[in-house]
Design brief:
heterodimer; A: about 500 residues; mainly alpha; two-stranded antiparallel ribbon; 19 helices; 2 strands; B: about 475 residues; about 0% strand
């Protein structure tokens, strides 16, 4: 079983979805079926985590079969230290998001849970694909279920948000497709081996000229939209606000990571010289995202929108760390990807469950609810602190490593970026104060506290946010070797360039 | 002579079967006319089986006037797919519109014989014969719904403009003949190679010929007839017209430029790359503005011709294979979409293809909507659906030839196209029905839709098999 674990992880949710589609007629049964399937999927990730050899930098659990042989396309999957945490994050958040949707999704439940499972399969696939063609197919395939999730089960402006999300992402990824095709022919003409094998293409040098720059830019557009980086971030607040809770959780928790994962997996190894040349620009864009995202978050009146803009800011840290090109920066970036998934995912879940009760997300409609819902207030505080980056919590370690790494690479940028942490404290605490303290809003007297199901699905996230904060080595140990290998690659080229 | 007969054996078989079809039509009762269509399907499948090419064979006949090879066979497959799906999708449509006539299936069937000659032709006169056989059948098909004014208009418009374009093509042919002294592709190529293209007569002739072809594949600016004809013709016929005659024209065009115009490749590449850009962009931009799904698909058919032109401009092996593969895929997804469109009827609403009539469809007919969703996303080129494989091949061919700019234009266009395909899904899934929209999927149409969906998914996920077929065909 271990030999095919990745294939099982990709196809199990699809088969489960198909099974539910054929044999489950009622929404409630499908809901439970989907939840059980997602939990099985999560459990199956565990042997992957425990059997992973942390001392080996390359790909593990590799599977390779011919797929479209005439074009050199393979079904080729594997994980390394950079992708394994993302796989774990995906299966974890999907299970939680499904459990979190039990009462939220009231209409067309069957379709919703089937869409969630198909989405999960595509996301896992994106993180383990080692063939460009496979990667691209899964990257795009994920758009359709997400589009439906936002468009069918979303809020008032859901259609606008769904279309915007779809078109933005598509516009970016079509350029990525051109880059992939160009690399295919270039690599083929250099080596005589026409293949979409990502590792083979990565190990070839493309000379750093115009070709490499164009490929870099095409990739960059695709990934930057997904992250999303300033100034192509505008789809994100709309999508987040309008999406149902589960959609927001998956969007923030996993989909955004696909962009930064793309930088790590493609931009740095394949176009290292162009990456080095563009490093200052990316750093500036990241810092703008950090500050701008934070400032815009500060003035939001809608909690969900506030958290959405804070994502722009937090993801800025990730890209800043990655483009520092050193061990701590990249490790911090990856850890921050993981943490942001946990923390922001949890915040969206919490916002979703209060929205279910009150049907409002406006900060002004709340006030003083801490006394009414103490458990909720406590848990919300934990994640507020996590988001700010309080030491002992995950967010702190991630941002700290990023700042250490970026300080070495570009100290000016790091100093400005650090102020983003202060801004984060301002907008999060201010929001917390306005929602939970102040004078009590009498309109909310029937508000009930979290029930057992809600505590259950938030629990793993609480544990993880402290775990990463107190003993991050559990998670960083996965990536040490892979990141080290990546950093060496880039440093060698940097030396060669000078 | 023996070899000559073999080279047109598929066409002879088709013709004999076609004549039998006429007899069968006379013998069937009025209410059972769909039987004619089913016989047609059986006949086409029989011919397809009887003429399976064995390993890249090539039979030249009638003093190099035509050739039966695996290339012609690949296009025959496209025509067969188009015929089968269209027939299945037409059965209920004809009945519901009171035009349940046997000749519908027969004429459709005979048009395919013309198309086969077009693709087999290596001589201008055979090419023209095939083209006219196809075109006359198509004029009738476009106006088949005699009671419908729009269909009448479509028939007349198609006839007048089609005849005009045939005239231009013929005029071009005579110039080329006058210059080369022969109608054979190979002789024309020989003359071009020795004398160059700097002769005014040959230039004029070629431009007119290529313009005539551009009319047939509805490339901008020779597309003016297409939107009205496509939207006026009976819906299943539209599906057929956007696929089969276009494939035939592409098939004939590729053979013509590959053999006869090979020495003038720089010139015609420029001509077609301009057409490709105009066609894609115009088709897409105007499709966005459409509120009628049939018209929207009509304009999108124009833009798809533009994508296929990219494969032609790439002028490499990969490009020609890409066009053949694209045609097969396009046949499945577009005829599939038109089958559903043909089934969509709203009593009391005059214009039954309005976008609004799709509102809330997914609640009442989840399976039909899912199929339509698959067709729309496939047409838009979203993986893992077949349309993506087609586009991927086309763009690959362009990049391989160093035409990155053309690939970029194509890619930007497919992103634009996504918007209007999505609008259909928006109405089906995200909007509530304004009125009681009902969609009745009858058995024959359901089978056609099912076949199309299965192939769109299969080609998308396991393209290898289909690519190998195309590859084997186009050695």
């Amino acid at each position: 079983m271990m030999a095919n674990i990745l294939t099982i992880l990709i196809f199990f949710p699809v088969l489960a979805a198909f099974f539910l589609f054929l044999f489950f007629r009622s929404g409630k049964a499908t809901m439970w079926g989907a939840f059980i399937a997602s939990v099985i999927e999560l459990i199956m990730t565990m042997p992957l985590m425990t059997n992973f050899d942390k001392s080996y930098p390359g790909m593990q659990f590799v599977e390779k079969y011919d797929w479209i042989s005439s074009f050199g396309v393979q079904y080729y999957v594997g994980v390394d230290g950079i992708s394994i945490l993302m796989v774990f994050l995906t299966t974890l958040l999907t299970a939680i998001a499904i459990l979190g949707s039990f009462t939220y999704i009231q209409k067309r439940q069957r379709e919703f849970y089937i869409a969630m499972l198909i989405l999960e399969a595509a996301m896992v696939g994106v993180f383990v694909a080692l063939d460009f063609f496979l990667f691209y197919i899964l990257w795009e395939a994920m758009l359709i279920p997400m589009y439906l999730i936002i468009g069918v089960w979303g809020g008032a402006r859901r259609i606008y948000a769904a279309v915007k999300f779809f078109l933005y992402t598509l516009a970016g990824s079509v350029f990525m497709m051109l880059a992939i095709i160009a690399l295919y022919f270039k690599h083929g003409s250099i080596t005589g081996n026409y293949t979409f094998d990502i590792l083979a293409i990565s190990s070839q040098s493309y000379g750093g000229g115009l070709f490499e720059t164009l490929v870099f830019l095409a990739f960059f557009v695709g990934f930057a939209i997904k992250v999303p980086m300033f100034p192509v971030h505008t789809w994100l607040p709309d999508a987040h606000v309008e999406a149902p809770t589960a959609g927001s959780v998956i969007l923030a928790g996993v989909l955004l990571k696909m962009g930064t994962y793309g930088f790590l997996r493609f931009c740095l190894p394949i176009t290292p010289m162009a990456s080095i040349n563009f490093m200052p620009y990316v750093a500036v864009l990241s810092v703008i995202a950090i500050i701008y995202g934070a400032l815009v978050a500060m003035v939001q009146e809608d909690i969900k929108k506030l958290v959405a803009y804070s994502s722009v800011s937090h993801m800025g840290f990730v890209t800043l760390g990655i483009y520092a090109f050193n061990q701590s920066g990249i490790e911090g970036g990856i850890l921050q990807m993981f943490n942001h998934g946990i923390i922001t995912g949890a915040l969206f879940l919490l916002i979703g469950l209060i929205y279910e009760r009150t049907h409002t997300r406006m900060i002004a409609d709340y006030g003083g609810i801490a006394s009414k819902v103490p458990v909720y207030a406590t848990i919300f505080l934990i994640f507020t602190m996590g988001s700010i980056g309080l030491p002992s919590m995950g967010g702190f370690i991630g941002e700290f490593l990023v700042l250490v790494g970026s300080f070495k690479a570009f100290s000016n940028m790091a100093i400005i970026a650090a102020s983003g942490v202060i801004f984060a404290a301002v907008y999060m605490l201010w929001m917390y104060q306005r929602v939970f303290f102040q004078s009590y809003n009498t309109g909310l007297h029937h508000l009930t506290d979290m029930n057992i199901r809600e505590v259950i699905y938030i629990m793993p996230l609480i544990i993880l946010v402290f775990w990463t904060g107190i003993y991050p080595e559990t998670f960083t140990s996965y990536m040490h070797e892979s990141v080290k290998h990546l950093v060496e690659q880039i440093q060698n080229i940097k030396v060669a360039m000078n | 002579m023996g070899q000559s007969i073999v080279s047109i054996l598929p066409e002879i078989l088709m013709t004999i079967f076609g004549l039998m079809l006429i007899v069968i039509d006379v013998m069937t009762k009025d209410e059972k006319k769909s039987g004619v269509g089913y016989f047609g399907i059986a006949f086409i499948l029989l011919t397809l089986l009887a003429s399976v090419p064995v390993g890249g064979f090539k039979i030249v006949g009638f003093g190099q006037m035509l050739v039966w090879d695996s290339y012609a066979y690949a296009f025959f497959i496209v025509f067969a797919i188009a015929y089968i799906l269209t027939t299945l999708g037409s059965v209920d449509y004809l009945r519901a519109n009171g035009i349940n006539k046997g000749e519908y299936y027969t004429i459709l069937y005979f048009s395919i014989i013309g198309m086969m000659f077009m693709v087999s032709a290596t001589d201008l006169s055979v090419l023209y014969l095939g083209l006219e056989t196809m075109a006359i059948a198509m004029y009738i098909m476009a106006g088949f719904n005699k009671k419908d004014k729009r269909s009448n208009e479509a028939g007349i418009k198609y006839f007048i403009i089609g005849a005009f374009s045939s005239g231009i093509l013929l005029y071009g042919l005579t110039y080329v003949y006058g210059y080369a002294g022969s109608t054979k592709y190979s002789v024309i190529a020989e003359m071009l190679r020795t004398n160059g293209v700097e002769n005014l007569n040959i230039k004029l002739g070629l431009v007119m010929m290529l313009a005539g072809f551009a009319f047939k594949i509805s490339a901008v600016p020779f597309h003016m007839w297409a939107p009205d004809v496509y939207s006026g013709a009976p819906t299943p016929v539209t599906g057929f017209m956007t696929v089969a005659p276009k494939a035939a024209a592409f098939g004939a065009l590729i053979r013509f430029v590959m053999i006869a115009l090979e020495p003038a490749s720089v010139q015609w590449q420029l001509f077609f790359s301009i057409l490709a850009v105009l066609t894609m962009t115009y088709g897409n931009l105007v499709a966005i503005a459409q509120n009628n799904v049939k018209r929207m698909l009509a304009y999108s058919a124009i833009s798809h011709a533009g994508y296929m032109l990219i494969g032609l401009v790439a002028a490499n092996d990969l490009g020609y294979k890409a066009i053949a593969l694209y045609m097969i895929i396009y046949g499945f997804m577009n005829i599939g979409a038109f089958t559903i469109l043909g089934q969509l009827k709203n009593k009391g609403i005059i214009d039954d293809e309005r976008l609004e009539s799709f509102a809330g469809l997914s609640k009442k007919h989840p399976l039909a909507s899912l199929a339509m969703l698959i067709f729309m996303f496939s047409l838009a080129g979203i993986p893992p659906l077949a349309g993506f494989i087609g586009k991927f091949y086309i763009f690959s061919a362009a990049i391989k030839s160093g035409l990155v700019w053309l690939a970029i234009v194509g890619v930007v266009n497919s992103a634009i196209a996504c918007y209007y395909y999505m609008r259909v899904t928006i109405y089906m899934y995200f909007k509530e029905a304004e009125y009681d929209a009902t969609l009745e999927m009858k058995p024959a149409s359901s089978i056609a839709t099912f076949i199309a969906v299965v192939f769109v998914l299969l080609i998308g996920v396991f393209p290898s098999f289909f690519i190998n077929i195309v590859k084997m065909m186009l050695v």
